[in-house]
């Protein structure tokens, strides 16, 4: 997985060091040498691209120690690119420092993180058995909820919880052949109205806690899907965890 990105990053660093050492030895000015200047600049661009990939692969929410090492390298890499086209003598010490940190501290933390990931079980936000296998699409949505949470994709998780909750309400009304109550002009009502109908429908038998949590699930699902200025965070989902699990089980019991 992400170790391939680190290996690519280290290889690109080695290539940069090679170009800089040759340029320094031959007293080549990067600003005037089209060959070495282009080589160094191209390698710096590749390094930046690979570094961004590493940051994406190791989000701070899940890999705090790896993310910390990346944060110590980032200003060095930024300085390296901002100094170009300085002399090879000026760039070389910075490149060597980045290389040393990547091969020592960063590499150690990546190896530790991957060992932990290998032995650690998947974090299940909502038990998979709450949805029966016969409901294939709902089961797949539930799988995506757990996969998103385990991968620290909390906005995706919240959006999929919203989708699952809405689908469960609709299918519960269909199961009791009372779907006409949640339709207007032959179309299903908006989610907020569906929630109101579910709360008021005695056949669903929802508990007080589930009735309370449904609007929260809508709020965070909408936040994840539509708000351009805010994010759903792990703490948001963790705070709703038990109530969400209970609500999904209660709704699924009506299928």
Spell out the key features of this protein.
elongated, Four Helix Bundle (Hemerythrin (Met), subunit A), 73% helix, 2 strands, 255 residues, mainly alpha, 9 helices
Count of separate DSSP helical elements: 9
Average pLDDT, to the nearest integer? Answer: 90
Number of strand elements: 2
CATH class of the largest domain: Mainly Alpha
Largest sheet: 2 strands, antiparallel
Named at the architecture level, the CATH assignment of the largest domain is Up-down Bundle
What is the global morphology?
Answer: elongated
Q: Give the quaternary arrangement of the chains.
A: single chain
pLDDT < 50 runs, ≥5 residues: none
The whole-angstrom Rg is 26 Å
Tell me the fraction of residues in β-strands, as a range.
under 5%
Proportion of residues in helical segments: over 70%
Distance between the termini: 39 Å
Task: Please describe the topology of this protein.
Layout: H1 2-25, H2 34-57, H3 64-83, H4 88-119, H5 136-150, H6 154-175, E1 183-184, E2 187-188, H7 191-200, H8 208-226, H9 234-252
Antiparallel strand pairs: 1-2
